[in-house]
Amino acid sequence: MKRALLLIVSFIVLVGCQNTTDTPSKNENSNETTQEIKENNNIKMKVKDIFDNNAKVEKVDDVVSGEIGKPHTEYKITINNNEVIEANDRIFSNQGTDEDRNKIREIQEKTRELAQELENDLDAVVTHYIDKDGNSILLAYSQKSKDIIPIVE
C-alpha cells in the first residue's frame, strides 16, 4: 500500500515538473513573452519611482487611436494628485500660473522619459487623470520618438 502511494506521488511530482518546463518563454495566462513581461514590470517600477504612490499603470494591448492609426500597446498612467489636477484646471480656465505650467510640463517630460524606454516606436505612454465627472483628462501622450501631446511651454 505504501509502495503504491509512493509511486502515485512520484508520478504526480514528475508530471508536474515536466509541465513547468514546456513553455519557458511564455506566461501561460497572458501569452506574453519574457521580454514583454520584463518591459511591463520595468515600466511599472519606473512609474512608481517617478510618481510615488499617486499613480497606477495599466497596460492596454491592440489600441488603435486617431493619433496612432496602427495597433499598438499603451501604458496608461492614471494619476491621483490634487495639486496636478487643480493646476491643469487653472491652465484650461486661463488662470494658470508659471508654477501650474511647470507641474504639467514635469509630468509630460516624465511621460516622455518612460516612452523612450519602450521597445518600439508605435507603443505609447499616456498620463491622465479622471475628473469629478468620470472623464479621462489627458496630460501627456508620448511615443518613443515623438510627443503626441506637445510639451507645455
What does this structure look like?
- The termini are far apart.
- The chain has a 4-stranded mixed beta sheet with strand order 1-2-3-4.
- It has one domain.
- The chain is of the alpha+beta class.
- It has 4 helices and 4 strands.
- The relative contact order is 0.12.
- The longest helix is centred in the first third of the chain and has 19 residues, at 2-20.
Any key phrases for this structure?
4 helices; 4-stranded mixed sheet; single chain; globular; alpha+beta
Provide a quick synopsis of the model.
By secondary structure, the chain is of the alpha+beta class.
Helix and strand arrangement:
Blueprint: H1 2-20, H2 34-51, E1 55-63, E2 72-79, H3 82-92, H4 98-115, E3 124-130, E4 136-143
Parallel strand pairs: 2-3
Antiparallel strand pairs: 1-2, 3-4
Helix pairs in contact: 3-4
Oligomeric assembly? single chain
Overall mean pLDDT score?
79
The geometry reads as globular
Major sheet description? 4 strands, mixed
Strand order of the largest sheet: 1-2-3-4
Count of all domains:
1
Structural class: alpha+beta
Rg over C-alpha atoms, rounded to the nearest angstrom: 22 Å
Low-confidence stretches: 1-29
| Secondary structure: helix percent | 40-55%
> What's the order of the H and E elements?
HHEEHHEE
* Alpha-carbon distance between the two ends: 79 Å
State the helix count.
4
